[in-house]
Specification:
The protein is an alpha/beta fold and 245 residues long. The protein is built from 7 helices and 9 strands, in the order E-H-E-H-E-H-E-H-E-H-E-E-H-E-H-E.
Length: 245
């Protein structure tokens, strides 16, 4: 038998070890949610779960591996009982000029940003629909609307996220409300993982000047899921200036 607290709504958050995922876990816990923290870096999410208390459970999971997500879904069902909110926050931003040199980066972005969200949603969908339905939160980007040199494949994953989300919105309503969050530059670890040296330096300079806090995005997510599901919140665009639009 699980020793987890069984009161409150349940949110599953991928990419919960840092950035928007971690901030969202904190914000939703503050609002009374029980949260399942999914990420590859088990030590980080265990530390976060200890900080958040009995309302959080850390589950090592890799969104690029379906068996890993299936195992996570079984733990969520066993320990938390159901899913009211699924937040697809796991993602990487490996910017650089389009060339064969960065093929590995392209594959990693597609498998994590787009296929990872698709796989996680597919696995958790039955739990999300059950018992009155829930909210699906997909983290996209302003890059899902405007591409520029150096972000071709990253933008492709985010444009793909937007198109997939719109189709899901039409298919799943009214059981599941699909909400797409499209931030601009957010102060997270994203730039740390860029492998192309010149692009990494340029991205770091831009983010230092224009980024907003991950907590700001988390608060928007918390507000969105607090609205009655009869309220349509299809897309929330968060501009680099920090103004929602």
């Amino acid at each position: 038998m699980s020793t987890q607290d069984t009161t409150g709504r349940v949110a599953v958050i991928t990419g919960a070890s840092s950035g928007i995922g971690e901030a969202t876990a904190r914000a939703l816990t503050d609002d009374g949610y029980r949260v399942a923290l999914l990420a590859r870096r088990l030590g980080r999410i265990e530390t976060l779960a200890d900080e958040l208390g009995s309302s959080a459970v850390a589950i090592e999971a890799d969104v690029t591996e379906r068996d890993s997500i299936l195992a996570a879904s079984r733990r969520v069902q066993d320990e938390l009982g159901r899913v009211d909110v699924l937040v697809n926050s796991a993602g990487v931003m490996l910017l650089g000029p389009f060339s064969a040199e960065l093929f590995g980066d392209y594959r990693r972005m597609i498998e994590t940003n787009l296929l990872g969200a698709i796989t996680t949603t597919e696995v958790f969908l039955d739990q999300l629909i059950a018992d009155g339905g829930g909210d699906l939160i997909n983290l996209s980007s302003v890059a899902g609307r405007t591409a520029r040199p150096g972000n071709a494949v990253y933008a492709a994953t985010k444009w793909g996220m937007n198109g997939w989300s719109e189709s899901l919105r039409q298919q799943l309503q009214p059981d599941v409300r699909v909400i797409v969050i499209e931030p601009g530059a957010v102060a997270t670890e994203l730039t740390d993982h860029i492998t192309h040296t010149e692009t990494k330096a340029a991205a770091e300079r831009m983010y230092e000047q224009t980024s907003i806090a991950a907590q700001d995005i988390a608060e928007i997510i918390a507000f969105a899921v607090s609205r009655p599901r009869g309220v349509s919140l299809n897309e929330i665009l968060v501009r680099p200036t920090g103004q929602a639009g």
